[in-house]
Design goal:
The chain is α/β, with parallel strands linked by helices and about 350 residues long. The chain has 11 helices and 12 strands.
């Protein structure tokens, strides 16, 4: 399959470094991998307790966010707890974890919320208790100190544009596309799907989305839904998977049916399975975020908020399109293979 090498990126560290200079912190490690050791933060940060609560502990993506948060705690001399439910669909357990943080009296919470609205009340209670709340990955519809995350609408548009390019490279001028998504009602996933539709319509108006299927963040379900589409849609010309679990399921179905050479796939995020699929061609492009940065910068901004420093209301570290042409470039390789860490015991 023809693949054009295209890299979309924004300066992943620039905004964070500016903030770090303001509050006297160094975040030069926030891309993961090599580089100089981060300097310890000011004595003002020492002794702070920050809980980092992710969407699910069973995902390499969120384990990378843990690793970034853990490193920030080590660099800056703060106590970082790492928690999360076992599934991204378990909103009630995530609410319970925030309540636990309130009971422990932590100074700040860095939260990747599993719902745009279901955690509003517990976030409000945390802030009323004097706990600073920094959200990452997806926004919530109540007040918080700051948000760090990819502009998923823009990144989704890039995914739609890339799938158009891949389909066009095969000489196809019309057809339908499967949009394989994880969980309904999650702001980040909804924005990716909306952006994908917009990017596809703008670039290839002759291509249409057949269905948007939700797999509850389950690889087996995603694989089954992809197999259903392969059998039911004779003019299926491409697939977009909105997160890593969806991408892994799609890749499994593509590989099992021998369609890697004829059916382009664009997927979000990265983990070892998705990286392997990118290497063997069952996924053509990955839209790669920087969860290590989410974790590191989340702790940086939590410290800043807790010590009275100003933080930006929103910070977008950007996304990169990785394919077989650039996946071994050092900068892209670091994003595809970030460090990981487990939840606190």
């Amino acid at each position: 399959m023809a693949r054009n090498r295209i890299l979309f990126s924004t300066p992943l560290l620039a905004a964070g470094v500016v903030l770090a200079l303001v509050i006297g912190l160094v975040v030069g490690k926030a891309l993961g991998g090599g580089g100089a050791q981060g300097n310890a933060g000011p004595g003002k940060a020492s002794g702070l307790r920050i809980d980092v609560i992710v969407k699910a502990t069973d995902s390499s993506f969120w384990q990378s966010m843990f690793a970034g948060a853990q490193r920030a705690g080590e660099d800056l001399g703060v106590d970082v707890g790492r928690f999360g439910p076992t599934s991204e669909t378990d909103v009630s357990d995530q609410v319970r974890l925030v309540e636990n943080s309130i009971s422990r009296g932590v100074d700040a919470i860095v939260l990747a919320a599993n719902s745009e609205s279901a955690l509003n009340k517990v976030i409000d209670r945390a802030r009323q208790s004097g706990i600073k709340v920094v959200t990452v990955d997806g926004t919530v519809s109540t007040q918080n100190e700051a948000f760090i995350g990819t502009n998923n609408l823009r990144a989704g548009e890039q995914a739609g544009q890339r799938l158009c390019q891949l389909v066009t490279a095969q000489g196809k001028t019309s057809g339908r596309v499967l949009l394989e998504n994880a969980v309904a009602g999650v702001q980040a996933l909804g924005d990716r799907a909306k952006g994908f539709r917009q990017g596809l319509a703008a670039s290839c108006p002759q291509l249409t989305v057949w269905q948007e299927r939700f797999n509850n963040n389950d690889i087996n379900t995603a694989a089954n839904q992809t197999n259903d589409a392969l059998g039911a849609v004779p003019d299926l010309v491409g697939i977009f998977a909105a997160n890593n679990m969806s991408g892994n399921g799609v890749a499994r179905a593509i590989k099992d049916t021998g369609r890697a050479a004829t059916l382009p796939v664009v997927a979000f995020d990265s983990d070892p399975q998705e990286n392997a699929a990118l290497a063997d061609g069952s996924i053509d492009t990955l839209v790669v975020q920087n969860p290590y940065f989410f974790g590191y910068q989340g702790v940086v901004e939590a410290i800043a908020a807790s010590t009275g420093a100003k933080v930006p209301l929103s910070l977008d570290p950007g996304a990169v399109l990785a394919d077989q042409g650039n996946m071994n470039d050092p900068a892209v390789k670091d994003l595809l293979n970030p460090p990981t860490a487990q939840a606190s015991q």
